[in-house]
Write a structure and sequence with these properties.
- The protein has helices spanning about 20-25, 35-50, 80-90, 95-105, 150-170, 185-195, 210-230, 235-240, 245-260, 270-280, 300-305, 325-340, 345-350; strands at about 60-65, 105-115, 130, 175-180, 265, 290.
- By secondary structure, the protein is α/β, with parallel strands linked by helices.
- It has a single domain, classed as 3-Layer(aba) Sandwich (Rossmann fold).
- Strands 3-2-1-4-5-6 form a six-stranded parallel beta sheet, with helices on both faces.
Length: about 350
């Protein structure tokens, strides 16, 4: 992939079945609208799959991991080596996303998109996949120069799309994306500021737990970086300037998942920043997205508002890894189950007062 024209863009959602789906939902044995957001989820699942009987098949979580050169500016309370150490933890099955993926029946895959330090040797668990798609030992420090070239950003988008195609070939039709990368909240905040037109102070949060002094320093560093790169071009150039390899791969993954007709479970601040880039390139991608939760990270709610998104859950999460997306899967399962299994007024012999 070498040009913007090579990026796989999703089609607009086919809404020809919408009236029939609404009729089926309304005729279930309940007051109309009484299942609230579940009804909207069922409608969305049916439209994406183009059927009145949608199914959830082999739901998958892909966690992309990479390092960021901006970490050299002291914007995180954790050293960069933690990225590699957490990848080892993922592979060994000991992280939060491992436990949550297992609990909700999601296939889990870890992708090394560009981890800077060697990943400690571990005995990989039997239920964790691993792919190495590294574009190098982390990005460059965007406080001094662009994080990557435009060509590298396009390559990362292509690799993220290829990761999704592997799962599509196995039948997956629901997918979530997680991430790991020390300092990636800095990258996400700058992407948000530039693409949403929001002051950087409204985008920057404490990340992994910065104190007040650390937060002020982070804001100052990112403000300088945005000023240095005041003339970024389109969304791909903005991604190349401020993004990480994992964010760029998630951008391609979102575009490909929508193109393949998957339902996308959108996680927190970092994952949504990748979707923000994808939606800037192809607004139709949003039709395929279920926004799992509102992160406790500063800026995420504003980013969701910019996208016109209504999150399903509010659990004060700010971990990343795809954890919020995994927790939303049972809600989606419930929506599909009521559409498929609940009786209609006619089949149950129940009078419909609205009929």
């Amino acid at each position: 992939m070498s040009t913007l024209n090579d990026i796989p863009l999703p089609p607009a959602l086919d809404r020809s079945l919408e009236a029939e789906l609404r009729r089926v939902i309304d005729m279930k044995t309940k007051p109309r609208g009484s299942l609230g957001r579940l009804e909207a989820l069922a409608l969305q699942a049916g439209l994406i799959q183009r059927t009145t009987k949608p199914r959830i098949v082999r739901p998958a979580m892909i966690v992309f991991a990479a390092d960021h050169g901006i970490a050299a500016e002291g914007v995180s309370s954790y050293p960069q080596e933690v990225t590699a150490q957490m990848v080892a933890n993922f592979l060994a099955g000991g992280a939060a996303i491992n436990a949550l993926s297992r609990s909700v029946g999601m296939t889990l895959e870890i992708v090394d998109a560009g981890v800077a330090t060697p990943i400690p040797a571990v005995q990989a668990g039997p239920d964790v996949g691993y792919e190495r798609e590294s574009l190098g030992p982390g990005t460059r420090n965007f406080a001094r120069e662009p994080a990557m070239s435009r060509a590298t950003a396009l390559d990362a988008i292509a690799r993220g799309a290829a990761c999704v195609r592997r799962h599509a070939a196995l039948g997956t039709n629901v997918i979530g994306f997680g991430e790991m990368g020390i300092a990636n909240t800095s990258a996400a905040a700058c992407l948000m500021s530039r693409l949403c037109g929001v002051p950087i102070d409204d985008c920057v949060g404490r990340g992994t737990g910065l104190d007040d002094r650390g937060l002020a320093h982070k804001r100052e560093v990112l403000g300088r970086a945005l000023a240095l790169h005041a003339d970024t071009g389109d969304a791909v150039d903005t991604l190349a300037t401020f993004g990480g390899f994992e964010i760029a791969m998630m951008t391609g993954a979102c575009l490909e998942a929508a193109r393949a007709g998957m339902t996308i479970l959108v996680d927190g601040f970092i994952a949504t920043s990748a979707l923000l880039v994808a939606a800037t390139l192809a607004p139709a991608v949003l039709d395929y997205c279920v926004f799992a939760h509102a992160s406790d990270e500063t800026g995420h709610r504003r980013m969701l508002a910019h996208l016109g998104a209504a999150p399903l859950l509010q659990l004060d999460l700010r971990l990343g890894e795809g954890t919020g997306a995994a927790l939303a899967l049972p809600v989606l399962r419930a929506a599909v189950a009521f559409l498929d299994e609940m009786a209609s007024f006619e089949s149950a012999g129940v009078s419909d007062q609205a009929g």
